[in-house]
C-alpha cells in the first residue's frame, strides 16, 4: 500500500471532498444570501455579478450570491444525487446478475434486453428524453423517479458485469460444494458470491460515482434539472442547488466570452470525477495485489 500512490492521492482528494461537503457549509464565511447591490470603495453603486474580491474570492452569480459559498453548499446535494444513482444501479443490478449467472432464464433475458436497448442510446440522450416527458412536469416525487430512471439506464450494464463474474465464480470448487450441500440461492449469494465480488463491486461503484457526477453536469449544460417545480406564471423553476444547476446558470455567458464563471462549477465537477476515478484505480491496484478469485471487472 505504501507504493500505491493512486490510492493515497485518491484518499486525500476524497477527504477534501468530504470536508467541503459536511464541514464546509458551517464555516463562518459561507453565505448564500443574495446581495442585490453593493457600494464600492469609491462610493459607487455596483450590481451583480460581482468580480473577484476579498468578499467574493470566486465572484458571485447574477443575483449576488457568492460563488464559493454556492460551490460548498451545493456539494452535498451533488454527491447525494450522484451516490444515490450509482448505488441504486448495483442494488438492482447485483441480484439480477446473480440470478442470471447460468445465462438462461427470465433474469438473463431481462438484462440482455436492458443492456441492448440502452446500449443504443447514449446515457445523456436517454436521460434528457425521459426527464423532458410532460407527465413528469407535476408528478409527485419527481426527484425520486428521475434518480430511479437514471440508475435504471445502467442497470443492464451492471447486471451483465455481475453475470460474467458470477458465471466464472460458479466454476470454483467451493461453489460446487455449496450446491452439493443444497444451500439456498440467498445463502450462496450472501456467503459466497458477494464476498468474492466485493472488491470488484467497490472499484466499479467508485467509477460509477464519478460517471454520475458527470451526468449531473451534462444535464446542467442542457438546462435539465433533477429537482424542479411547476409555476403557472414562470413555468418550470429549478429548485436544485447542485453543481449542474450552477453550471446551467452561467452557461449562456460563454457566448459573450465570459468563461470565468463557467469554469468554477466545471472545476468542482472535474475534481469530484477525478477523485472517484483516482480512488477507484488505487483500490483496483490494492485488490489486484491480494489473492482473489479473479481480476477486477
TrEMBL record:
Occurrences of domain ABC transmembrane type-1 (ranges): 75-280
Annotated GO biological process: transmembrane transport
Cell location: Cell membrane; Membrane
Transmembrane regions: 7-27, 79-98, 110-137, 143-162, 201-226, 259-280
GO cellular-component term (any): plasma membrane
Top-rank lineage group of the source organism: Bacteria
Membrane topology, from the record: Multi-pass membrane protein
Keywords: Membrane, Transmembrane, Transmembrane helix, Transport
CDD domains reported for this sequence: TM_PBP2 (cd06261)
Keyword Ribosomal protein: no
PROSITE patterns for this protein: ABC_TM1 (PS50928)
Pfam families for this protein: BPD_transp_1
PANTHER family for the chain: OLIGOPEPTIDE ABC TRANSPORTER, PERMEASE PROTEIN, OPPC IN A BINDING PROTEIN-DEPENDENT TRANSPORT SYSTEM
Family: Belongs to the binding-protein-dependent transport system permease family.
Protein name as annotated: ABC transporter permease
Organism the protein comes from: Paenibacillus yonginensis
Amino acid at each position: 500500500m505504501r507504493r500505491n500512490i493512486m490510492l493515497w492521492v485518491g484518499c486525500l482528494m476524497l477527504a477534501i471532498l468530504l470536508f467541503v461537503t459536511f464541514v464546509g457549509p458551517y464555516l463562518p464565511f459561507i453565505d448564500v444570501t443574495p446581495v442585490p447591490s453593493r457600494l464600492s470603495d469609491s462610493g459607487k453603486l455596483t450590481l451583480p455579478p460581482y468580480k473577484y474580491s476579498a468578499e467574493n474570492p470566486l465572484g458571485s452569480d447574477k443575483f449576488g450570491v457568492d460563488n464559493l459559498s454556492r460551490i460548498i453548499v451545493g456539494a452535498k446535494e451533488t454527491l447525494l444525487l450522484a451516490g444515490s444513482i450509482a448505488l441504486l444501479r448495483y442494488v438492482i443490478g447485483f441480484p439480477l446478475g446473480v440470478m442470471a449467472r447460468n445465462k438462461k432464464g427470465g433474469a438473463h433475458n431481462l438484462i440482455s434486453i436492458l443492456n441492448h436497448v440502452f446500449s443504443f442510446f447514449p446515457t445523456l440522450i436517454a436521460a434528457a428524453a425521459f426527464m423532458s416527458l410532460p407527465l413528469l412536469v407535476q408528478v409527485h416525487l419527481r426527484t425520486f423517479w428521475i434518480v430511479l430512471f437514471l440508475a435504471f439506464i445502467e442497470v443492464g450494464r451492471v447486471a451483465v458485469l455481475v453475470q460474467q463474474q458470477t458465471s466464472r465464480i460458479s466454476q470454483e470448487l467451493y461453489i460446487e460444494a455449496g450446491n452439493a450441500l443444497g444451500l439456498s440461492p440467498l445463502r450462496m449469494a450472501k456467503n459466497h458470491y458477494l464476498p468474492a465480488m466485493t472488491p470488484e463491486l467497490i472499484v466499479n461503484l467508485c467509477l460509477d460515482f464519478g460517471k454520475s457526477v458527470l451526468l449531473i453536469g451534462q444535464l446542467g449544460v442542457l438546462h435539465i434539472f433533477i429537482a424542479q417545480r411547476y409555476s403557472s406564471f414562470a413555468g418550470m423553476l429549478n429548485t436544485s442547488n447542485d453543481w449542474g444547476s450552477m453550471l446551467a446558470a452561467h452557461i449562456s455567458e460563454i457566448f459573450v466570452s465570459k468563461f470565468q464563471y463557467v469554469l468554477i462549477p466545471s472545476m468542482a465537477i472535474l475534481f469530484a470525477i477525478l477523485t472517484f476515478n483516482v480512488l477507484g484505480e488505487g483500490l483496483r491496484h490494492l485488490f489486484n495485489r491480494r489473492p482473489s478469485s479473479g481480476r477486477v471487472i
